[in-house]
Amino acid sequence: TGSEKQGTKAYYVTTPIYYVNDAPHLGHAYTTVAGDVLTRWHRQRGEKVWYLTGTDEHGQKIMRTAEANNVTPQAWCDKLVEEAWKPLWEHLNIANDDFIRTTQKRHTDRVQEFVQDLYDKGEIYKGGYEGPYCVGCEEYKLPGDLIEAEDGTKLCPIHKKPVEILKEENYFFKLSEYGPKLLEFYEANPGFIQPESARNEVVNFVKQGLQDLSISRSTFDWGIPIPWDEKHVIYVWVDALLNYATAVGYNENPAKFEETFPADVHLVGKDILRFHAVIWPAMLMAQGLPVPGRVAANGWLMVGGEKMSKSNLTGIKPQDLTSHFGVDAYRWYFLRAIAFGSDGSFSWEDFTARYTSELANDYGNLASRVAAMVGKYFGGELPASTADGDAEKAIHEGLAKAVATADAKIGEELDFQAGILAIFDFVKQVNGYITEQEPWKVAKDDSPEGKARLATILYTAAESLRAVAVLLNPIMPETSQALWESLGAEASLGALADQPVQDAGTWGKLPAGATVTKGAVLFPRLEDPKKD
Ligand code: ME8
């Protein structure tokens, strides 16, 4: 209850705040669904949780997109947020507690205060930067990244145009001073960066020595002004990272900030790991603020061997898949098919095959068969189980194991694939149990023993499904709710979201006498796959 939870630290999970230069694709939805499953799992443990997502709206990339579309950057962002990003999260049943936009005053004011404070502490200095600059990219290039024309002129590798040597005065954050502190921190907190391969990459990067970080830009103005020198705007990454603090009351609501900050888990794609695992903790250390518990990097969804991306126009819209497979199957598929942290390719064929065999055949059929048999043999009234034997004991044990594995893998290790597999292994076990016990044959035995056997088999199957609905609710909330209702569990046990996942294996929760009805088919047969 709320009062018990007051004063305790919330389990705080974030997604990256996404650039609104275009509409979201499967890659953005992948990270956001993972965070939703993680936070729903923790909520269903009874914990206090805060789940944050939002949008990154400053910088040249957004400014240019707006210019190309003949609107102001603010108007562009407003349109994309309201028409593309927020509606997608609603469509995918994302239960975020807040949505931060970096153009909101609650963010921009606090970012200025944070940066001013660092400046006052002597962590920021004015310095010069001189280097090869590509106007096409509006970006300083590293000398090693350039290519050479036949006459020896240095060219931008993207635009294939000559770079200029540009000199600019910028403000710098003394990032280089934080190398040793960061290495000490990684050493003391081996779980800070996940997966292990990502951790090693970051440690090696920091060991090579860090450069001070340029935190201002004066060649364009779509950003938050540096408070003491308004010709400069704050570098978009410094602005963006601070969302994790400004959204939960930094310098504004001390009680909220105390009970939420820092994040327990920052979910990020592996492309932005260094910003989160190096720059962000150093910024916090410089302010004496606590650093996050974990940065967990997911791998890339690939199309044709390349990272799916907005800029390369290879983004697939999530709605193109949900209209075919449904929202629940969509939420399930990417976490089930790809080990979190590894890259994976999307294909219609693989999704179709898994949907059919695992969701429709293994799980959906089990649910409809059990409901149908309780209807046929017991008039829809769940019988009591009175003749438990070894076969039932194996089911009770299988369930306990599935619960323990799923709770550790999904709730703690962010190994969504292993957690989902544990639940579906149990579904397979229950299918095997029914095949072996042959309730349709036992039903022909009219003796009291026969009746007791039949009752026991169907109770065992229904009670197993009760637990499956609880365990799958964070992943597939709509179908879990449908199953929950078809088992008569809503009436007897209350709301599904209130059932603790860690107790799902306690046997015998579903009471005899519960009204079991045949609900809608959980995973309907697929139409012919849409090819376009
Ligand atoms: O980087 N596979 O925003 P962004 C998997 N604004 N995940 C993918 C993906 C793919 N192909 N493509 C994108 C930014 N993602 C910054 C973040 S945070 C303070 C600022 C996911 O719109 C993944 O989580 O480019 C990646 O990190 C994020 O989208 C990048 O989104």
UniProtKB/TrEMBL annotation:
Assembly notes: Monomer.
Alphabetical UniProt keywords: Aminoacyl-tRNA synthetase, ATP-binding, Cytoplasm, Ligase, Metal-binding, Nucleotide-binding, Protein biosynthesis, Zinc
Cofactor note (record): Binds 1 zinc ion per subunit.
Residues that, per the record, bind Zn(2+): 134, 137, 156, 159
EC number of this enzyme: 6.1.1.10
Pfam family, one: Anticodon_3
Source species: Streptomyces litmocidini
The encoding gene: metG
Source species, domain of life: Bacteria
Family, as annotated: Belongs to the class-I aminoacyl-tRNA synthetase family. MetG type 2A subfamily.
Keyword set includes Glycoprotein: no
Short motif 'KMSKS' region, span: 307-311
Example of a GO MF term: methionine-tRNA ligase activity
First-listed, main subcellular location of the protein, grouped into a coarse class: cytoplasm
Chain ranges of the Methionyl-tRNA synthetase anticodon-binding domain: 382-530
Methionyl/Leucyl tRNA synthetase domain sequence ranges: 11-370
Described function: Is required not only for elongation of protein synthesis but also for the initiation of all mRNA translation through initiator tRNA(fMet) aminoacylation.
UniProt cross-references to PANTHER family, sorted A to Z: METHIONINE--TRNA LIGASE, MITOCHONDRIAL, METHIONYL-TRNA SYNTHETASE
Subcellular location as annotated: Cytoplasm
Cofactor: Zn(2+)
Short motif 'HIGH' region, span: 18-28
Enzyme class: ligase
Catalyzed reactions: tRNA(Met) + L-methionine + ATP = L-methionyl-tRNA(Met) + AMP + diphosphate
Protein name: Methionine--tRNA ligase
Keyword check for ATP-binding: yes
